[in-house]
Amino acid sequence: MRFVSLIPAVVAVFFSDAANAQAWAEYVNRTDFFTVNFPGEPTRQDSTYKTEKGTSLPAHVYTAQDARGRYAITVVDYATATAELPAAIEEAAKAMRARGTPKYDGQNGLDGHRSWRLTVEMPNQRIVLAEILVARNNRLYISEAETTLNVAPPAQYQASLQILDEDGVRIRYRNQGSTERVR
User: Fold this and answer.
1) Residue 10 covered by a domain
2) Side by side, which strands form the sheet with 56-65?
């Protein structure tokens, strides 16, 4: 009799460990000044990002994956090409649109930073949710979540991007174009 009452406890422990292995957690990157929720520790790949003018800029791509899809943040450092920064969002959005059919395509103002949000259906039955943001630290942030069409959008990823200052504090402005930070 006592053995039978142990079975539910063992099953509960097994499933809670499996659930924790798939748990989303906040990932903080003080080097590239951002935080985002990822399904596990992301991998980092150094890359080169080419602007439409042909300028090669240093970039880092942070990627994590789970059973639902692939999640990535690309951080491009425009410090040596600040004159090209005003066109950065439109160039990145254009590249994202080229991947499929835009279903949502509009201006956004994430935490008062200039940004653009897209949802793109791709020909291979996948969908990309993207947030493209330019921060005042001369960086372009491209957040993308790629999932199949039949799963719920990963809102905990898309809504979690935050830009940090040099002290690791979230930067929020009253509105787009404002210099007044919300504390």
Assistant:
1) no
2) 43-50, 56-65, 69-77, 139-148, 126-135, 114-121, 101-108
Count CB atoms within 10 A of the CB of residue 29. Answer: 17
Nearest to 67 by CA among 112, 18, 113, 2: 18
Does the pLDDT value for residue 13 go beyond 50? no
Q: Which amino acid is at 104?
A: Y
Q: How many domains does the chain have?
A: 1
The residue segments making up the domain with residue 94 are 24-163
The residue type at 25: A
pLDDT in tens, 46-59: 999 999 999 999 99
> String of b and e for 103-113 (b: at least 16 CB within 10 Å)?
eeeeeebbbbb
Please tell me the pTM assigned to this model: 0.84
| Residue 172 belongs to some domain of the structure | no
| 142 in a structural domain | yes
Rg (CA), the chain: 19
136 within domain boundaries: yes
